[in-house]
Amino acid sequence: KAGVTQTPRYLIKTRGQQVTLSCSPISGHRSVSWYQQTPGQGLQFLFEYFSETQRNKGNFPGRFSGRQFSNSRSEMNVSTLELGDSALYLCASSLRQGNEKLFFGSGTQLSVL
Amino acid sequence: QQQVKQSPQSLIVQKGGISIINCAYENTAFDYFPWYQQFPGKGPALLIAIRPDVSEKKEGRFTISFNKSAKQFSLHIMDSQPGDSATYFCAASVLGYKLSFGAGTTVTVRA
Fold first, then answer.
1. Is the minimum CB–CB distance between A56 and chain B shorter than 8 Å?
2. CB contact under 8 A, B45 and A104
3. Over chain A, what HEC string results?
4. What are the tens digits of pLDDT across the range A13-57?
């Protein structure tokens, strides 16, 4: 069974640009969560999607958004990029909303110059 | 504000030794406490987890000890091996929602 797939693996953007990251969950998993990982702040919850609806949201500004498609694939978007948005963005999938067993992808490393 | 405090930041242990990582939390609503292992270039992987109604859980060389009254839990890695060298994160959640992670502990096992 294929794991969680995140694309692209690496991304370099400049301040002010926007970026879209993609996540394909494990087959059969219907919930997708996004986390930001930085050396300073560690792993922080961004949001969770289930059945194409955002179910939970972390403490991030509105520049961070996401969506989920009917096939459970998810995208997250960051608009008006800031230097501090440089981070590893991790997607995790689970069978259902609130399911405790999360399976993480390898992440997208975003660098903002 | 970190809801789960983790220590130490890093530790070095000899092969065959015991690695101990500690975590503390404040939110008494937390009801699920997992530990994740992360290797460089990879996402975290669930290692072992415990609920507050159990004081200890063991899976192979990994053991979680849980002290509900002290609001603390710890991971013990017995007979540490070089392949255990990784970053370990404790975490906590309420009903499986919005995992709050500790800051991480980098474990280095010397052969």
1. yes
2. yes
3. CCCCEEECCEEEECCCCCEEEEEECCCCCCEEEEEEEECCCEEEEEEEEECCEEEEECCCCCCEEEEECCCCCEEEEECCCCHHHCEEEEEEEECCCCCCCCEECCCEEEEEC
4. 999 999 999 999 999 999 999 999 999 899 999 999 999 999 989
